[in-house]
Amino acid sequence: MGVHDECAVFGVFGNKDAANFTYLGLHALQHRGQESSGIISTDGKEFYGHKARGLVSEIFTKQVIENLKGDAAIGHNRYSTTGASSINNVQPFAAYFKDGYIAISHNGNLINSESIRHHLIEDGAIFHTTSDTENFLHLLAKNKSDNLQESLISVLGKVRGAYSLVLMTTDSLIGIRDPYGIRPLSLGKKGDCYILSSESCAFDLIEADFVRDVMPGEILFITHNGIESRQFAYETPAPCIFEYVYFARPDSLLWGKSVYNVRKKMGAILAEESMVDSDIVIPVPDSGIPAALGFAERSDINFQMGLMRNHYVGRTFIEPSQSIRHFGVKLKLNPIRSIVDGKTVTVVDDSIVRGTTSKKIIKMLKEAGAKKVHMRISSPPFISPCFYGVDTPTRRELIASSHTVEEIRKYITADSLNFLSLDGMMKAVEKKEFCTACFTKNYPIKLESEPAYGTPLPFL
Amino acid sequence: MGVHDECAVFGVFGNKDAANFTYLGLHALQHRGQESSGIISTDGKEFYGHKARGLVSEIFTKQVIENLKGDAAIGHNRYSTTGASSINNVQPFAAYFKDGYIAISHNGNLINSESIRHHLIEDGAIFHTTSDTENFLHLLAKNKSDNLQESLISVLGKVRGAYSLVLMTTDSLIGIRDPYGIRPLSLGKKGDCYILSSESCAFDLIEADFVRDVMPGEILFITHNGIESRQFAYETPAPCIFEYVYFARPDSLLWGKSVYNVRKKMGAILAEESMVDSDIVIPVPDSGIPAALGFAERSDINFQMGLMRNHYVGRTFIEPSQSIRHFGVKLKLNPIRSIVDGKTVTVVDDSIVRGTTSKKIIKMLKEAGAKKVHMRISSPPFISPCFYGVDTPTRRELIASSHTVEEIRKYITADSLNFLSLDGMMKAVEKKEFCTACFTKNYPIKLESEPAYGTPLPFL
Amino acid sequence: MGVHDECAVFGVFGNKDAANFTYLGLHALQHRGQESSGIISTDGKEFYGHKARGLVSEIFTKQVIENLKGDAAIGHNRYSTTGASSINNVQPFAAYFKDGYIAISHNGNLINSESIRHHLIEDGAIFHTTSDTENFLHLLAKNKSDNLQESLISVLGKVRGAYSLVLMTTDSLIGIRDPYGIRPLSLGKKGDCYILSSESCAFDLIEADFVRDVMPGEILFITHNGIESRQFAYETPAPCIFEYVYFARPDSLLWGKSVYNVRKKMGAILAEESMVDSDIVIPVPDSGIPAALGFAERSDINFQMGLMRNHYVGRTFIEPSQSIRHFGVKLKLNPIRSIVDGKTVTVVDDSIVRGTTSKKIIKMLKEAGAKKVHMRISSPPFISPCFYGVDTPTRRELIASSHTVEEIRKYITADSLNFLSLDGMMKAVEKKEFCTACFTKNYPIKLESEPAYGTPLPFL
Amino acid sequence: MGVHDECAVFGVFGNKDAANFTYLGLHALQHRGQESSGIISTDGKEFYGHKARGLVSEIFTKQVIENLKGDAAIGHNRYSTTGASSINNVQPFAAYFKDGYIAISHNGNLINSESIRHHLIEDGAIFHTTSDTENFLHLLAKNKSDNLQESLISVLGKVRGAYSLVLMTTDSLIGIRDPYGIRPLSLGKKGDCYILSSESCAFDLIEADFVRDVMPGEILFITHNGIESRQFAYETPAPCIFEYVYFARPDSLLWGKSVYNVRKKMGAILAEESMVDSDIVIPVPDSGIPAALGFAERSDINFQMGLMRNHYVGRTFIEPSQSIRHFGVKLKLNPIRSIVDGKTVTVVDDSIVRGTTSKKIIKMLKEAGAKKVHMRISSPPFISPCFYGVDTPTRRELIASSHTVEEIRKYITADSLNFLSLDGMMKAVEKKEFCTACFTKNYPIKLESEPAYGTPLPFL
Predict the structure, then answer these.
(1) Is the ipTM of this complex over 0.90?
(2) Chain C residues touching residue D361 (CB < 8 angstroms)
(3) Residues 6 or more apart whose Cβ sits within 8 Å of residue C29
(4) What is the value of pTM for the model shown?
(5) Which CATH number fits domain A260-430: 3.10.450.50, 3.90.600.10, 3.40.190.10, 3.40.50.2020?
């Protein structure tokens, strides 16, 4: 909570329901981005597309889906960033270049985007978006090779950063994960049809089988001749550990593990590390539920849904002039007095970013009668921003970057506060190779400088 | 699940934030109706209003709220019925009659609406909606008394059925609950300002205090002189027990009890009645969670969130030509394979209406690897439709009206199926006086004949 | 120019294209009202309807027309009055009353509307619009006769004012013109199908034959048994002479005469009365063209289109901060310098209401080089407002009500100004029996008092 | 009639009302394109823009205009071509390239667009529209010179065809007319502020003074330092003579002459060439009016507006199942029976393209009683399509490309038919240097091949 979502990519090759599957896949991946969505399909000759702001269920009508002809399609969900966001920035992007049509969906963030863009513009390129993703298209368009595989590998040699890509031409679907494999990308199959998806939960909805993760540094070329894999780079993998903590859906399989199980285990280890005597354990719903269940189980404390979540919350709410305490949080969460009144309560959440939400939750619980509130966080203190595609606040706004745990505890007015230890977290995920930069400042890809967002926007 | 929502009513008197509070109140009551909403306010002279289809968070903008002037307001959420529903039918209704302006919000259903309407039309009335609620306005407009209290009491003597009403004139707010008190209505207070709400959870959001339930057969007149109560009828109360089972929000206090606690207790008694050996207990989220927690606790079986709910589901989804198994349910629910695979699972849901959803859930769980699936329902078999304002299927469609428990078990392919007994349910609610007609066919208000819906619609 | 439009009524009985013909008829009558339109159709059982703000060509789609089933339909165009106009006020109105469905379209204005409404409200009626037209429905609903013809005649005995009505039940179409016949209404025929229309030009578009005018004080009942006429009142006819001057389309036949010919004759007689030496005669397009042609012909002065009209003008235009001279007029009219430069110009317009437009036109012509501008008006000075359905300014705003011709000439800065004489106008129309109240203050129907618009609006 | 409109370009530099003036200018030029419009403004730092489908009066609101900040702006109206037209193709186009922002509006058509585009794509350019106008931006972006003037002149050396361009950077406004000056472009001035407009009629509306035409092969650079002219090419001028015949507004000054006067003279010479005895002369409104007036004057035959035009016609009309004769034309034009009945009528129109409209008009006139209908066309037979920016039918569809005048007469069922001779037309325009290709097949710019429209569209 407090860290914004990122993006979802999806692609289908070889099924006449390609656009419809993509639409359902994007729906299943809606949690990764709610600001806008788009689908581009191909019938082998033309590209067809639709993009708009809003939820997947709102922007795609029967008519729209029917117009997205062909047996291949790619899609994208985008997270909400600034209000001024142009429709031009909504992915997938499509272009017509010397080899024909190409479309791209990107999850992640390049860290040398500014210098690439600068060189491209110097060389006569016209940019139509402010997105780093457009660089891929220009680099491809300028590449001299007439073999798309070679072109792609050459282009990937020039970009640095996090990218899980799904590309489409009129006769192929391509999946790419950056050399560190920072963002997820999975391969699925439904009959003869291949599917690429940010998370495996989308395969369930369309009844496809999960095949495997795309590997760090791997390109998958999917054509009517089948599937071909090439490894274009070899680095120590560093998949984002925060996907396990918060982003991914609990019903996804990520990097070989059930997200639900990993979260439960985080909660259990957290209980081992920082058990506290209390009457009940309650989660901050929905993301905190698995960890809270793990915590309650291990500590053998009664689990209750002491905070009710209202799922009808839209984009903006109009605050009354007579201001409501904890207004923003209250629209989403309401303590159930009959559960917490007179009780010592342990609240389990997945992370603390700014601390403001935790503070409001604790106040609401105390106003509802809780005698004591112990806060338990199923990840370590979040101390450093992500530069690989997660929309985090600046370091300044991250409360743990400048406050001790005790200072945070005081700020949020908890009776006690514990974070899961780094070791505990690594034990829960049972592997070593991860990007843990947000908790450790160990950035696997060196930053030249913090990227400057906001290249002038050729807006329309 | 499967029984549609009903309606929400709300009213505020004596606060310059009246329209904003009503908007927030309707948001908190969104679960009682998602099809359309409306607010009418008054500044003591004029009425101001806005009604539209959609969610509260979508249809009320800052500009709209600012235009709803004055220090009193009433609102209404409506459930989704047929697609052909006219905007004319969106409440609150307002009219100008001999005593000035009046507005009305109604939750419930009259059972002598047709004959009243017939008499009114014979007498020269022109109807503008197909709603039974319009009868109240015509009866008031035709009443000869020049005292609104007397008029109202006279009018209430003519209507039979379920009604929780919130009315507003330019200088008063009025709350009415029918003699049996079938639908809920609560009184709240925030400073000098009185609030009426279908459920108490709305008071929490606007930081008002819950005062008490409006009593069956009671009228509350709220003016600048304070609050006045009159009892207009005396019947044996028969509040709807299904509010406890499914409708009301778990964080509401209903008829003196926490809904969450009642549901948990239903689950606990269900466990006592029909415990079954299994590896895990899982709820059908969200409505089945409290009962499942009660069940798991009492049976001491491990509780898990084995079904993941997608909350982004919109109104309609476009099914692919290559049809997906259990499509409708799959959009909302996905089993978490890592939890259920290889396990004996007890699933707890609040009710079974048609049986189709349960059947799909059980199939999904088995496809995800569940060895056995035991279904436990935290209410008795639903055998008879509601005529008091709940949008239930016809008797024909209610699977329990014509099938034994064993037949239902076979239909839904459960390994075992148990419903909470009627006695068990009554024990959970700890009172005797309820309308339990949907479970018992004991209708507290005699039906003259099943009401004919669909009076010709003076549509526009 | 300057007098706003009024309304159009239309009806079709006995053709499966009824709704489509009504749509085309309303398009042909668009000049009589551009604010909003509506169509209601019937298939003998149900009513179907669509109403919206905007032009006929914008608001009716193929889908909408297809939904307007049946072989009878009525329609209405409404003129623009105030911005706050409710969609409730858009006609046709429909109601369900003791005899079944009825729909009504009304052109004209009742002068005893307030007292009727007052009595109806006292008697328990609930009003849903602020329109005087709703009175007809309530009076019908309350009438005790079970014969619609008798009911109607009884109701018409209670209302006073101007009304050309088209009514529809599920099995009949009814045309009514008030006893004075103030507003027009014509009967047409296309095969076995009867059509009622405010003006005959609509018959041309749908290839129906003009049969005759509906007579003052006549009701036409059109059913599957044919057409039946009843005379319900006998008064000296007083059709609106301003229809000839400005409202009606030049290609309509009104009261036995071609509107174009009458206007040309007005121009010719104006030339006889007030010829002036000039180089060219130019019209204020489009309404002034026929009179200008008549003037030019009779005076044997060269006719030119010296003012160019821009027909793309929408509802509102955004004025620059650096204000443009004669902004409003300039958006619609532009002088052609090459025609008027250095010339003595006679400008012919149909009427002067406030004088502001004439003043701006003359200034534009002089700025474009006209040496002298003589203004000739093809009707007498407009001195008194209309209370029979034309949206005229108040008397105060009518420049001719308080200024002599010489004073007006000075105000509009014309080098000379002449109006057609009353005798001249009567000579052009070749009949005596007309309502000429706007030119003479001789109101054929006595006003009790100037009607108060704005009964409190039970808005929705 | 029958030849579609083309485009309008407009630009303002040096006035805080720049966007508002552009909006009014586009309104005045609405006749040159009704499909879509756009404005881009600059405050010296950023670009601001708005583009949409629809009429100028519909798509620009007060809020939109206020957001178009700065003291310079350019705009564009586009004609309607295919329904599938992408919003991407709506001009002005903007881009960010090495020298900063640039925006462009284009009227005309390049004839070597395909080969330029091919080379650009080969060289790595990514196209975002199917418009030939985008070539200008890519050529500029790729040009190595760091002086915009030199860049532009170099780019203009590469393109062949018709182009009147208005470009804008953050600190300059640039007007360009191709070496042949095929499409018009005029310079205006309002105080210190310069204005560029397709036609001079737009200057009248914003009260700017007409300065002069931009010359063929001239570039005008307008900055805060004033205006600078460079001649970049010298060819025999060949302005489009069809602007005089049909496109331009009669109140515009084109190439030194009043459009109205030229049209009147065409009508007069037509009368000299092919006078015919008839009772009346009537125009096909609105475009045929000036020529008809010239014809009537010279032939001394009575002029009447025998065809009434309905200006409320929207985009599409729904035809009844019982088909109406001459449906499409009838929606726009209606004969006035009282004028034409029993008469011999001479109809004057500006041109005949397919012949279908003329045929329908003549049939309508005869159905309205005309004894004889003589058709007179104020331009020569239209025999060859335009490749310089006018949306003409293919040669195959041009009736005069394959039929003699007598054959056309028979087809349209006129009693006689005459076209203005080429000599007569040249006499009317009083100059020799024109592009008359549509009448003569003498194309001033050699076509390599007929351009292929429809490069694959990288649609979004």
Answers:
(1) yes
(2) none
(3) C8, C10, C77, C197, C198, C199, C201, C202
(4) 0.86
(5) 3.40.50.2020
